[in-house]
Design goal:
The complex is a heterodimer of chains A (about 70) and B (about 250). With about 70 residues, chain A is mostly helical. Chain A has helices at about 1-15, 20-40, 45-70. The relative contact order of chain A is 0.11. Chain B starts with a helix and ends with a helix. Classes of the chains: A mainly alpha (about 70), B mainly alpha (about 250). The interface between A and B is large, with 37 and 47 residues.
């Protein structure tokens, strides 16, 4: 049972190691999807927004982690 | 038959990511073998591999039933979460904010855990060593399985991606068998940085395709994506290394 818990925890940590980073990435994806679905934005433009959003989220996450000293 | 330009990124991503995971699993198995001999370690490893293989055999065919757009979107999002988490940690390690992963220290930690278990229950030490190897193989193997599925399933490249992962296993086991000690000289953070870049690039690519985006150049779009994530990782690392950050810490 303990091992199952450890495996479950490892699986969660694989994708949600940093909850804030994961949540922000999901928001970027949801934003791109919403633009395509509801605002009729050009698909490639929404794709570009997805790419740039992820890059910005990454840099900001590293900067914030360094600033607060967490890992 | 898939073209080389489509298969090469999947094979190399699976190979590099699997190398990192197999090195970590090898350290745990070696710790178990060092203390209790190869028999319990090998049994634990075989049981772990059997469990993983069983899971893949049972769950693998289900992937064919999922609509390709949905599969690309879900895998793309999971790859983004997984890849960017790796890249973030690799950037922080490169900046010296968090310590580098030390395979020798990991080995010492596993040995200490096993010795502590030995003091608690002497009669079942082989069992404890076997379970330690089993757990290490399952935990690291799950990540390998996910990476192979993630980089391979979206374009029918499961076989090439699996071959990349198997090549990594063979290489690590070969080197491990020769040196017979933890593979601490593997540039693990550099590998993780590179793998984080590749998985993040795959993540944006698949997520976009799942949303209906037709990327210019198709698979070749992965290259500029990887370049941009590499640049972002370096930039993040540089920002994290700035003196002002050290003062704040």
């Amino acid at each position: 049972m303990t091992m199952l818990k450890e495996i479950g925890a490892e699986l969660v940590a694989m994708f949600l190691g940093d909850a804030r980073l994961s949540l922000t990435v999901l928001c970027v994806v949801a934003g791109a999807a919403a633009l395509i679905r509801f605002a009729d934005v050009d698909l490639l433009a929404a794709g570009g927004l997805l790419l740039v959003g992820c890059l910005v989220v990454l840099i900001e996450s590293v900067r914030r982690s360094a600033q607060v000293g967490d890992n | 038959m898939s073209s080389w330009s489509a298969a090469a990124p999947a094979i190399s991503a699976a190979f590099l990511a699997s190398s990192v995971e197999v090195v970590e699993a090898f350290t745990i198995v070696l710790a178990a073998a060092t203390l209790r001999g190869w028999r319990p370690a090998a049994l634990g490893t075989a049981a772990g591999l059997a469990l993983l293989a069983g899971g893949i055999v049972v769950l693998g065919p289900l992937l064919d039933r999922v609509p390709i757009d949905l599969l690309q979107l879900v895998i793309g999002i999971l790859l983004l979460l997984f890849g960017m988490t790796w890249l973030r940690k690799a950037s922080l390690r490169a900046a010296g904010v968090i310590p580098l992963h030390d395979e020798d220290a990991a080995f010492a930690r596993e040995v200490a855990q096993l010795e502590a278990a030995a003091r608690r229950r002497r009669t079942r030490l082989d069992w404890v060593a076997g379970m330690m190897a089993f757990k290490g193989v399952v935990l690291e193997g799950l990540e390998v399985a996910f990476i192979v599925i993630a980089v391979g399933a979206g374009r029918g490249l499961l076989v090439p991606a699996s071959l990349g992962a198997l090549a990594a296993c063979a290489l690590v086991l070969l080197v491990g068998a020769v040196v017979h000690r933890p593979l601490s000289r593997v540039p693990e953070n550099t590998l993780k940085f590179g793998v984080g870049v590749m998985l993040s690039a795959f993540g944006v690519f698949w997520t976009g395709e799942g949303l209906g985006v037709a990327w210019p150049g198709q698979d070749l779009a992965l290259l500029p994506f990887a370049g941009l994530f590499l640049g972002a990782g370096f930039l993040g690392s540089l920002i994290a290394r700035r003196p002002s950050m050290e003062i704040v810490q």
